[in-house]
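Task: sequence design from structure.
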């Protein structure tokens, strides 16, 4: 009844692609053998590295986050290598599964669905690995299912303190371009990302960033078949090698536009925008939580992602709320992932091309849905969110 107008997909990926990105993609195919496309592609690599805050290397794959997960592991590991996966939600387990299917010896340290990585447990495990069998430590920066944000710099400090030489590999698929991430300063050796979240481009590109230490591990890695090898992609002698074949031409134009937008705003300002908008979501939730079943999954604001928020209600209520918001008000919320019962959980994506009216509108719609469905909640959520926006803009 009230849904006609621009619909808004407020799920944690794929995120909203800006018109500027979509318009850049809306063209006939360019010449892939020479000319403007080649120059444009060359310009993408340093700009991607700037967003990742690294002076290392970047390889682009035609694929999604799962492809980047697999590519990253295949380039540093030999069959049977031991990897320590620190899981704080569904996506850590997902990366672990990819490793298992590559034939790696995967050890999962599970921190549950509501907490971040506990550094003491990591330190204890590394301390007893005297033979340095663990080749890499894998961590998800922001686990999109739980919306926890892990302390990657702290993880590096923990690894350094134990004197362990393992590579540090981070999944920034949800966080890149949303939550602050400093690949080099935080000592991350390999980082994976994808196009469709904070980078605002439709799904279809996966990225693997790596430093020289990780590239040395490539020497003994025997899992990367020709297509997945990161070296020709990162050091191409001919244009075809960037992509192992025909370039994903239209996605590249979209990515160029997205990187221009990030550069024009400034990465610090991009992070700040996400921080303020996430703060508005949390302020609304704080008010709603004072009465009734609603609660944010991550209790400590310092451990919450600025890209996505997972929240719980009673069984069935989240399904009803998502349905109401989409059908009546034109806002699609994310489903609960990896939680029981799934019908009690929903997620709000606030990643990439989001601004105050998108987030305030979403929160007001959620509040209307809670009212319409008779789900008890504290009052003043939308007003509290508006105050955060007003204060940030002062
Ligand atoms: C979305 C996501 C993935 C999976 O990416 P796909 O493109 O769906 O394969 C992996 N890790 C995190 C943290 C994600 O948010």
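Answer:
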């Amino acid at each position: 009844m009230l849904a006609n107008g621009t619909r808004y997909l407020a799920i944690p990926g794929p995120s909203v692609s800006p018109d500027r990105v979509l318009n850049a993609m809306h063209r006939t195919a360019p010449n892939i053998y020479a000319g403007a496309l080649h120059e444009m592609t060359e310009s993408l690599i340093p700009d991607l590295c700037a967003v990742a805050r690294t002076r290392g290397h970047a390889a682009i794959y035609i694929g999604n986050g799962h492809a980047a997960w697999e590519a990253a592991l295949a380039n540093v590991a030999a069959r049977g290598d031991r990897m320590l996966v620190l899981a704080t939600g569904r996506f850590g387990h997902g990366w672990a599964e990819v490793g298992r299917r590559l034939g790696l010896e995967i050890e999962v340290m599970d921190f549950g669905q509501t907490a971040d990585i506990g550094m003491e447990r990591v330190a204890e495990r590394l301390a007893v690995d005297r033979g340095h069998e663990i080749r890499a430590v894998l961590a998800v920066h922001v686990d999109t299912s739980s919306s926890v944000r892990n302390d990657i710099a702290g993880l590096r400090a923990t690894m350094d303190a134990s004197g362990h030489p393992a590579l540090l590999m981070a999944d920034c698929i949800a966080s890149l371009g949303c939550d602050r991430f400093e690949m080099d300063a935080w000592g991350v050796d390999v980082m994976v990302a994808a196009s469709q979240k904070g980078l605002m481009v439709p799904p279809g590109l996966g990225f693997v960033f790596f430093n020289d230490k990780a590239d040395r591990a490539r020497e003994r890695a025997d899992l990367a078949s020709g297509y997945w090898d990161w070296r020709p992609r990162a050091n191409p002698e001919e244009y075809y090698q960037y992509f192992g074949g025909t370039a994903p031409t239209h996605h590249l134009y979209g990515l160029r536009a997205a990187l221009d937008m990030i550069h024009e705003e400034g990465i610090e300002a991009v992070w700040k925008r996400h921080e303020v908008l996430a703060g508005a979501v949390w302020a609304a939730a704080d008010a709603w939580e004072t009465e009734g079943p609603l609660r944010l999954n991550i209790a400590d604001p310092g451990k919450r992602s600025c890209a996505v928020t997972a929240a719980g209600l009673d069984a069935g209520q989240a399904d009803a709320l998502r349905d109401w918001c989409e059908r009546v008000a034109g806002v699609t919320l994310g489903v609960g992932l990896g939680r029981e019962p799934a019908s009690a959980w929903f997620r709000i994506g606030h990643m990439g091309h989001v601004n105050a009216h998108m987030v305030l509108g979403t929160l007001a719609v959620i509040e209307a849905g809670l009212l319409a469905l008779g789900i008890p909640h504290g009052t003043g959520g939308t007003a509290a969110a508006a105050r955060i926006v007003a204060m940030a803009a002062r």
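Residues 8-15+266-393 form a domain with the Aspartate Aminotransferase, domain 1 fold (CATH 3.90.1150.10).
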